[in-house]
Amino acid sequence: MKKKTQIPVHSMDDWFSGVYIQPMGIRKLHHPVYEMSQPHRHDFYQCVLVDKGEIVMEVDFEKIRLRDRHVFLSYPGQIHHIVSTQMQHGWFLAFDAATLDNNLRSILDQFLTEIMVMQLPQQLFESFYSLMDHLYQIYVNPGQLYQQQALQAMTCAFIYQLASAYLQEERSALSRHSARNIEITKTFRELLRHHGKSVRSTSQFAAKMNITASHLNDTVKSVTGFPVTYHIQQELIREAQRLLCFSDRTIMEIAGDLGFDDPKYFTRLFSKITGVAPGKYRKGKCKE
Question: Domains (ranges, CATH) in the chain?
Answer without folding.
Answer: 9-173 (2.60.120.280), 180-287 (1.10.10.60)
